Amino acid sequence: MWTQTQYPPPIIAHLDLTAILSPQLPRVLTSGVCAAGSFILVAFSHSVGISLCGVVLASISSGLGEVTFLSLTAFYPRAVISWWSSGTGGAGLLGALSYLGLTQAGLSPQHTLLSMLGVPALLLTSYFLLLTSPGPQDPGGEGEADTAARQPLINSEAPEWKPGSSSHLSLQERWTVFKGLLCYIVPLVLVYFAEYFINQGLFELLFFRNTFLSHAQQYRWYQMLYQAGVFASRSSLRCCRIRHTWALALLQCLNLAFLLADVWLSFLPSIYLVFLIILYEGLLGGAAYVNTFHNIALETSSEHREFAMATTCISDTLGISLSGLLALPLHDFLCQLS
C-alpha cells in the first residue's frame, strides 16, 4: 500500500486556494493558453508563417510548463521526479501514437489537432482541482540508503522552504549552485543536442524505398519509436540508476555520427535497423533526463533544490535550440547533394 511518507499528500477534489495564490499561477495559465493557441493556429493555418507561430506557442507552453512543474517537484517526496519523468515520457508517446493513429484512421490533420484541445483544459483542471500544497515532509523521505551519502552543493540548511523561496537566494549562492550543476547541465545539453539533431535534421533523410511505408509514414514511425524509447527509459528509475550521465551523452553523440554517416553513404540495408537505432536514441535521451534530475535531488540542499531544478531545465532547451540552428541548414545541404 502507498504510505504518506513515501508519496505526496492525497489528491483532493476541491479547489486549493494555495495553488491559486502561488507564484506559479501565471506560468501555469500562460502554459495552458499557449498550448491551446498552438493547436488552433496550426489547425487553421494556411501559411508557413502562421504554422510556425503555432509551433512557437507550443514551445513556450512546453518550456514554461516544464520549468514550472519540475521545480515544484523539489517540495514533494523524491519519487515524484520518477513519476514526472514517466508522465512526460508517456505524454510524448501518447501524442505521437494519437496523431499516427487518428491520421491513419482517416481523420484530417486539422480535426486531429482540434481534438487535442481537451489536453490544455485537463492541465488547468488538474492543477487547480487535484494538486495539493506540499507538506513539510522531507523530499528525500523514501528512507533510501543513499540519503545519508547526500552531498549538498552548498552545505547549509534553511529552517523553512516553500515554493518561490529560491528567489531569495543571493547571487553568490546561485552562482555556487550553478557551478555545481555544470557536471549535469553539460551532458544533458549534449544529449539533447545530439538527439534533436537527429530528429530535426536526419529523420526525413533516412528514407527507404523498399518498404510498404510511404515517406510520411516512415517519419511518423520514427517519431513514435523515439517517443516509446523516451517513455521506457524515463520510467526506469526504480530499475536502473545512472550516476555518470556523461556516458549517456557520449553514446548519444556516437548515435548522431553513425546516422549522419548513413545519410551520407546509405550503407544500412533495412529500415528495421534504423527503427532499432531510433528506439535506442530515445532510451538514451530519457535515461539522461530522469537520472540527471534524480541526482540533483540527491545532491542539493532543500533551500537550493527549486533553483537547481529550474536552472537545469535550460539544458534541454539549449540543446534543442543549438541543434536546430545547425541541423536545419545541414538538412538543406544534404538534400542538395541527393
TrEMBL record:
Which keywords annotate this record?
Endosome, Glycoprotein, Lipoprotein, Lysosome, Membrane, Methylation, Phosphoprotein, Prenylation, Transmembrane, Transmembrane helix, Transport
Q: Name one GO biological process term.
A: membrane organization
Compartments it resides in: Late endosome; Lysosome membrane
Family matches, as Gene3D superfamilies: MFS general substrate transporter like domains
Q: What domain of life is recorded for the organism?
A: Eukaryota
Spell out where the chain crosses the membrane. 81-100, 112-130, 177-198, 246-265, 271-290
Any one GO CC term of this protein is: membrane raft
Coiled coil start-end: none
This protein's membrane topology, according to the annotation, is: Multi-pass membrane protein
Q: Which family does it belong to?
A: Belongs to the battenin family.
The entry's protein name is Battenin
User: Which gene is the coding source of this polypeptide chain?
Assistant: CLN3
